[in-house]
Write a structure and sequence with these properties.
It is a single chain. With 322 residues, this protein is of the alpha/beta class. The chain has three domains: 108 residues, Cobalt-precorrin-4 Transmethylase, domain 1, CATH 3.40.1010.20; 84 residues, Rossmann fold; 84 residues, Cobalt-precorrin-4 Transmethylase, domain 1 (3-Layer(aba) Sandwich), CATH 3.40.1010. The chain is built from eleven helices and twelve strands. Strands 10-9-11-1-12 form a five-stranded parallel beta sheet, sandwiched between helices. Strands 3-2-4-5 form a four-stranded parallel beta sheet, with helices on both faces. The protein has a three-stranded parallel beta sheet with strand order 7-6-8, sandwiched between helices. Helix 8 packs parallel to helix 9.
Length: 322
């Protein structure tokens, strides 16, 4: 029998966990494994979650950091975060079967980068250095895009023409952080232009809205997600900014009972790449320790879904018609 906790109530946010882009990327790998058999190669982690990656590895997925790591004739899937044209060209030059599982919302940002660059704009990309999504987007027009991470960075930006500046954004950022940076950009470049629709993805926005509502009702928030997941880290930061203690945990094994000595209300959410089974395991942790009340806080409905990559659909049609 486990020791009882002081916790009286657990509240789950909705929405939480997998977004449409993540579901599509994982399904892409699984469909390819069924169709072509193992091994299937994936450029970088398909999504930023340790459990998802390990599950797919067991089924025969091999995660690589370079096109050179894929043998000739292999099938290579590009991860949900997107890749640069350089990587795409390298896969083509090697004769690989390439399947693009880039999230459609990331692809939208790539298209914006290409459009603004073609029109002669100096592009400011608001994002985090080293993130796979940022690397891929900057690769679309490396000579025209500058990365902006903080408000202070804006003073150091050098552009050809202050009247010809455009802004694009990494999809998984905190809306609140981005607002301050965008305001600073507008102050320095009043003529700045933006895409017709903002880049921060619907799932990032919805999960942050939900966790803000959650943080007002609980003392402590557990965010289930990997530490290299940008959107999961933002959820923990947003919780803390709203006044709730927050811990980012990979899974139930990372929970420390000492966190709950003076805590009666605990909130649970999950990043966009965290499987729902991890949420259930955390809920069971509390049930096993005497917590009887588990509620769900539904903040915004979600019904977005994306079709599988074109390459898979084309291959399927060929099989049917072949």
């Amino acid at each position: 029998m486990h020791n009882r906790l002081a916790v009286e109530r657990v509240v789950l946010t909705s929405p939480r966990g997998f977004c449409a882009g993540v579901e599509r990327a994982i399904e892409t790998v699984e469909v390819c494994l069924q169709r072509y058999g193992a091994p299937i190669y994936v450029y970088h982690e398909i999504v930023h979650n340790k459990h998802v990656v390990e599950d797919l590895q067991k089924k025969g997925a091999v995660f690589v950091d370079a096109v050179d790591d894929v043998p000739p004739g292999g099938t290579l899937i590009f991860s949900a975060h997107g890749i640069s044209p350089e990587v795409r060209n390298a896969a083509e030059a090697k004769g690989l079967t390439a399947i693009d599982a880039t999230c459609p919302l990331v692809t939208k940002v790539h298209r914006e980068a290409i459009k603004f660059a073609t029109e002669g704009y100096s592009i400011l990309l608001v994002g985090h250095a080293g993130h796979q999504e940022v690397i891929g987007t900057m690769g679309e027009a490396p000579d025209r895009i500058q990365l902006v991470e903080t408000v202070d960075d804006i003073a150091r930006v050098v552009v050809e023409d202050p009247l010809k500046v455009a802004v694009i954004t990494q999809t998984t950022l905190s809306i609140d952080d981005t607002t301050a940076i965008i305001e600073a950009i507008r102050a320095r470049f009043p003529a700045v232009v933006f895409p017709p629709k903002e880049d921060i993805c619907y799932a990032t926005t919805n999960r942050q809205r939900a966790v803000k509502a959650l943080a007002k009702q609980v003392d402590l928030v557990l965010v289930i997600g990997s530490h290299n997941s940008s959107n999961s880290r933002r959820l923990a930061e947003v919780s803390q900014a709203c006044g709730a203690q927050a811990y980012l945990i990979n899974d139930v094994q990372a929970i420390d009972a000492a966190w709950f000595t003076a805590t009666t209300r605990v909130g649970i959410t999950a990043g966009a790449s965290a499987p729902e089974r991890l949420v259930k395991e955390v809920v069971n942790y509390f049930r096993e320790r005497g917590v009887k009340t588990v509620d769900e806080l539904s903040v915004v409905p979600e019904s977005v879904s994306f079709g599988l990559p074109r390459e898979i659909k084309v291959a399927k049609l060929t099989e049917v018609n072949g």
